[in-house]
Amino acid sequence: MSETVLKSVVVPALQIALVVAVLLGCVAYLVLLERKIIAFMQVRLGPRRVGPHGLLQPVADILKLLLKEDILPARADRLVFYLAPVILLLPALVAFAVIPFSGTPVRVLGVEVRPWITDINVGVLFLLAISSLGVYGIVMAGWASNSKYPLLGALRSAAQMVSYEIPLGLSVISILMLAQTASLVGIVRAQAEDGSWFLFWMPYPQIVGLFLYFVSAIAETNRAPFDLPEAETELVAGFHTEYSGMKFAFFFLAEYANMILVACIVTVLFLGGWLPITLGIPGLRGALSNLLPFWGDAGAALTGLLWFGIKVLVVLYLYLWIRATFPRYRYDQLMRLGWKWLIPLGLAHLVVTGIVLLAAH
Amino acid sequence: MFGTSEMEINLGPQHPSTHGVLRVKLSLDGERILDAKPIIGYLHRGCEKLGESRAFPQAIVYTDRMDYVAAVNENIVYVEAVERLLGVEVPPRAQYMRVILSEFQRIASHLVWLATHALDLGAMSVFLYCFREREQILDLFEGYCGARLTTNAVRIGGMYEDFPEGWVEEARRFLEILPARLDEYHKLLTKNRIWLERTREVGVIAGDVALDYGVTGPCLRASGVAYDSRKAIPYAAYREFEFDIPLGTRGDTYDRYLVRMEEMRQSRRIILQALDRLPDGEIRGKTPRRIRPPKGEVYHVNEGPRGELGVYLVSDGTDNAYRCRFRSPCFVNLQALPELCRGHLVADVVAVIGTLDIVLGCIDR
Fold first, then answer.
1. Predicted confidence (pLDDT) at residue A286 exceeds the cutoff of 80
2. Is A331 in contact with B350 (Cβ distance < 8 A)?
3. Does the CB of A43 have a partner CB in chain B at under 8 Å?
4. B196 touches chain A (CB under 8 A)
5. What is the pLDDT of residues A24-44, one digit of tens each?
6. For residue A232, which residues of chain B lie inside 8 Å, CB to CB?
7. Reduced to 3 states, what is the DSSP secondary structure of residue B24?
């Protein structure tokens, strides 16, 4: 088969299939991980009966949801009702097309395979744009359910997500300034060249940027303490009240896929992507970049993937920790936080980063 | 062309945050609450009527099912009312035992309040930590009277049994770890920005307005009114103990939170004093075999965890009461719900219901 077809169709198609499969598996097990970790924080054990240590729980959950009755509320808009979960899940999956999971391309059967599906030079913009599409899914779900509670929940959620896009973008712009490129691979390479992750970038570590991004991302993904739109203990059970079975599962999958996406983005932008954790000790970088030197490039790719995975897990753990600890913000307080505190903070952070960059030159 | 109209929403009887089967009809203008009408009766079981058709000792069992989270307090108020009608003296050891169990019940009840209130507002972990402590108290109750929740621990004239061996030591062990645990809850909530924003200035009621409504208990004390039946009309052996009454200043949800947290510490203080000075002696006074109080009526009050528990007993000389009326503190406190909710947002209704600390069993009887 011709070289170009191989390179531009077959390999990406296989990569996409692999990424989606692994991702869906990770999402299912993230649900279990959350239940176990939050349980441990709450002096209890979490799921432990289905499989050893509850490891088959996600399988049981998926089976249960597949076998549930598919409810369509009376006078709900059929097409929109069925479409909403899909429109919520797809952007979360599509965004993974630009995430670099490792650094080194590998030669497989004579074809060079890069550890990312694609690397466009406006990667960051692509991510921001795609993740904004998720709002449509929520609004559609709330409207199509033809019921007061989902409508209220959906409107709140939509307003919340739109408001927190701005501090999200502001924190990302600082990274763009430091990296001089919007390509995600380029950003990690810039951190490799600089010698330190952007989080620890001297003279102005991007701690504020990370804080801003992470808090806005929690609001974007509708997680505690910003999960009022879907909180079970509040008046409205949220935009997915009327959903059952697999469509409900889609909402859940979308939420957790978004969480993983945010963790990956944080890792790439602030935590150095696939770069090893060297704790600042010079010279360690080379040794830790390839823990399997006898495998050459494949070893480097796997090691990069390992470091990437570790960082993503740390960010996810933070997500869960925050959920187990904090009470929930009321809706107006949530909006006030986003508009009156995070946006000015983001602007100030941007200005300071710019000044520091100018002075460094 | 575009107008807005009021929306009526039901915070239905089945809802995770209504602490029982409470129905609240909310009139909303967007997100602002114009009115909140509580509708009760879903848990009515006719306890007062049952009190009329059962003999006095038999009716004790019904009292602990009314406010099932404050069972011992309900038991005691009813039994003491009967004792007043009969003119029976309760020996000091029994009175001290009643105080100890009462205060443990108060701590357990406040732990349930904190757990459910925090859970409603999103702090999931506090719920589990509070129930972990409460388990120990329930174990103590089970060790004493065999039941965790519906205790039926008192008898007319005294107590039915003395503390089993090792009970006092286990009680002391629990009281030793309690302050550290309370500090844990404080660390998680008291200075937490989100908690403060959800509870400060939410559900404010002034002291005189609260008195007008007949609100009692921590809700009244958080509004600055220093009224506690244990000090105002002492019953059992409360005259002999030293304790403070925590007061609030603003009468908002945060003050009610602080008042109840401090009350747990004061309860611990009372129990320690009672355990230290527990007198020896018999646990049951001289009571007639057949409980047939002379004709008369009595109104006896008690300080329950939620407010002033009252029993109005009318006896006509027979085995059963002629009228057995229970004053439920939650019923009266719930009246203030519209006042507390008006002008707030929808999410605050949950906070207000949580802070009023209602138990539907007590309200509906």
1. no
2. no
3. yes
4. no
5. 999 999 999 999 999 999 888
6. 16
7. strand
Query: Can you give A200-234 as a three-state secondary structure string?
Result: HCCCCCCHHHHHHHHHHHHHHCCCCCCCHHHCCCC
Report d(CA B333, CA B356) in Å as an integer.
7
A192 closest CA partner among A311, A103, A309, A281: A103
Q: What is the DSSP pairing of strand A106-108 with strand B296-304?
A: unpaired
Q: The domain that contains B152 carries what CATH number?
A: 1.10.645.10
Domain ranges of chain A: 3-360
Structure tokens at B74: 């309900």
| Residue B3 CB-density burial (10 A; 0-12 exposed, 13-18 middle, 19+ buried) | exposed
- Helix A11-41 with A297-325: angle, nearest 10 deg: 40
Q: How many domains does chain B have?
A: 1
CA dihedral sign of residues B127, B133, B137, B138: positive
Structural domain range at position B298: 44-364
Question: Alpha-carbon distance B229 to B218, whole Å?
Answer: 11
Residue B102 lies in a domain: yes
Nearest-angstrom CA–CA distance, A133 and A165: 11
User: What is the tens place of the pLDDT at every residue in B146-164?
Assistant: 888 888 888 888 888 888 9
CB A245 within 8 A of CB A70: yes
Q: Is residue B165 part of a domain?
A: yes
Is residue B77 predicted with pLDDT exceeding 80?
Answer: yes
State the DSSP code for A330: P
ipTM field: 0.82
Contact yes or no for A217/A338 (Cβ under 8 A): no
- Please tell me if residue B133 touches chain A, with a CB cutoff of 8 Å: no
Q: At what angle do helices B92-120 and B346-356 cross, to 10 degrees?
A: 170
Residue A323 to residue B348, Cβ atoms within 8 A: no
**Token pair belonging to B72:** 């011992």
A208-247 pLDDT, tens digit each: 899 999 999 999 888 878 887 776 545 556 676 777 778 8
In chain A, where does DSSP find H-type helix? 3-5, 11-41, 57-67, 78-94, 123-132, 134-144, 148-179, 184-194, 207-220, 245-270, 284-289, 297-325, 331-336, 343-360
- Note whether B220 and B229 are within 8 A (CB): no
| Residue B6 counted as domain residue | no
Nearest to A235 among B11, B118, B127 (CB): B11
DSSP per residue over B247-298, as a string? Answer: --SS-SHHHHHHHHHHHHHHHHHHHHHHHHT---S-SB----SS--PPSEEE
pTM beyond 0.90: the answer is no
